[in-house]
Amino acid sequence: MTRVLYLSHDGLLDPLGQSQILPYLVQLSGADTRIALLTFEKPHALRDVRAVEEARRCCADSGIRWVALTYHRQPSVVATLWDMARGFWTAWRLVRQERLQLVHARSYVAACLGVLLKRLAGTRLVFDMRELWVDGKVEGGAWPRGGWLHRLGKRCERWCLTQADAVVSLTEDGKRIVEGFSYWRPAPPPIAVIPTCVDVERFANHHERPAPRPAFLEGRRVIVYLGSIGSWYRFDAMVDCVREAAGRRLEVFFLVLTPHVEAARRLCAERGLAAGQYDVRSVPHQEVPAWLRWADVSLYFIHPSYAKRSSCPTKLGESLAAGLPILTNAGIGDQDDLIAARWSRRWRPRPISGPGRRWKRSGRKAGRSARVAGRRPASG
Q: So what's the pLDDT on residue 359?
C-alpha cells in the first residue's frame, strides 16, 4: 500500500479545493492508496459548519484523513511563515503517525514543507507546481521585480524543483519552460503534464437534461463569466465586450458567477451596462453546472504573460464539459492549441480592448468533443 500526504496551502472548502483537490483524491484513494490531507482553510469557511461536515463526511467515506489548519493572510510574509511553521509540525506528526511514504505538495508553499519532510523524514516528494507562481507574483505587481521577495522566491523554486522526485505542470508550455532552466545537473526529474480537472459527467449531464430558464434569462443570449474578479482576469474587457454586443442590438445578458459580488456589480455599472443587462451572484460550486446549462457562451479574458504560459483555467474545462462555446483571448497556457487547432474558428473583430488583440471562440461541437475526450483515460 502506498501511503501519501497531500499538502495544500489552498483550502479544501474553497471553490478551488472542491473542484481541483477533492475530486482527485476521492478517485485516487482506495485499497492500494491511503491518503492524509493537510489544508489551510479560510476562517470564514471554517465557520460554515454544514460545509465542514460535508467535506469531512466525503473524506471519511473515501478513507481520507483530513486535517484542517487555519489560513493566515496578513501580514503577508509573516503570516505565510507562521502557516509554514504550524504546517510542518502538523505534517511531521502525520508522517510519523501514519507512516507516510510520499508527499504530494500542491504549489510552492507546500513544496517547501515537502522538501523539509524529505530531508528529515525520508519521504519522497512530488512537486505539483501548478504554474510559475513566483513569476506570476512579479508580473501581477505583488512583488517588485529584482526585490528580495523575488530573489528568495526563485531560490525556493529552484530548491523545490531540484529536490523533487517528480514534478507536475499544468501545461506542455510550462513543462518546456521548466526543462529549459539552466541549473539542471544532469537532467530534471520526470515532469508530468496534468491539466486542471473537471467532473465531465456532472457538468455534461446538467447540460443534456435542460430545465426551463429562470424568467429573467428568457429570450436572451446569455454570456456567462465564472470566477474571480481582479488580479489576472480582465473583467473590464469582458464588460466592454458585452456592452459592445448589446450596442449591436443583440439581446445579450451578462451572467456573472463570482465570490466577489460587490466588485463585479460596481465594475458593470461603472463601464456602462444597464441594470437590466446583467446579474451578479455567488453560488456554491455544486450549483455551478446548473447555472452553466442556462448560458449560451462562456466568456473570459486573461492578461497573457510569461507566467500564464503555465496556466490552465479551470473554467475552460468546465465550460467545454457543459457544451458551451468559449470566447477568450490567446496566449494562455495550452488553450491556443486546445481550442484553435481542434475546434475553433478565429476572426478579428473591431478591437474591444487594445489594437490588434486576437480573440478566439470555439463552436458548440467543442463541448461535445470535450465530453467525449473527458471519458477517455489520461495518457502520459
A: 43
Distance CA 337, CA 378 (A): 17
Strands of the 345-347 sheet, one edge to the other: 278-281, 252-257, 221-226, 297-299, 326-329, 359-361, 345-347
Residue 24 sits at φ, ψ, to 5 deg, of -60, -50
| Equal fold, 2-193 vs 200-374 | yes
For cell 475553433, what's the residue?
Answer: 344
Q: pLDDT tens across 197-246, in order? A: 888 888 876 545 556 677 788 778 899 999 988 778 999 999 999 998 88
> Where residue 342 falls among pLDDT bands split at 50, 70, 90?
low
Whether the pLDDT of residue 364 is over 60: the answer is no
Task: Write b or e for each residue in 300-325: b if 16 or more Cβ atoms lie within 10 A of its Cβ, otherwise e.
Answer: bbbbbbebbbbbbbbbbbbbbbbbbb
Q: In what order do the strands lie in the sheet with 191-193?
A: 64-70, 33-41, 2-8, 102-106, 124-130, 166-169, 191-193
Contact residues for 288 (Cβ-Cβ < 8 A; gap 6+): 203, 226, 257, 318
Neighbours of 84 (CB within 10 A): 18
**What whole-number distance in Å separates Cα of residue 31 and Cα of residue 63?**
9
Q: What is the pLDDT of residues 35-80, one digit of tens each?
A: 999 999 999 999 999 999 999 999 999 999 999 999 999 888 999 9
- Domain extents in the chain: 2-193, 200-374
Task: Write the CATH number of the domain with boundaries 200-374.
Answer: 3.40.50.2000
Residue 258 makes CB contacts below 8 A (sequence gap 6+) with 225, 226, 227, 228, 229, 264, 280, 282
* End-to-end Cα spacing for the chain: 22
pLDDT of residue 340: 65
Q: Is the domain defined by 2-193 classed in CATH 3.40.50.2000?
A: yes
pTM above 0.85, yes or no: no
Q: Where are the alpha helices (DSSP H) in the chain?
A: 15-20, 22-28, 43-46, 49-61, 76-98, 107-121, 133-139, 148-163, 172-179, 200-208, 235-247, 261-270, 288-292, 314-321, 335, 364-374
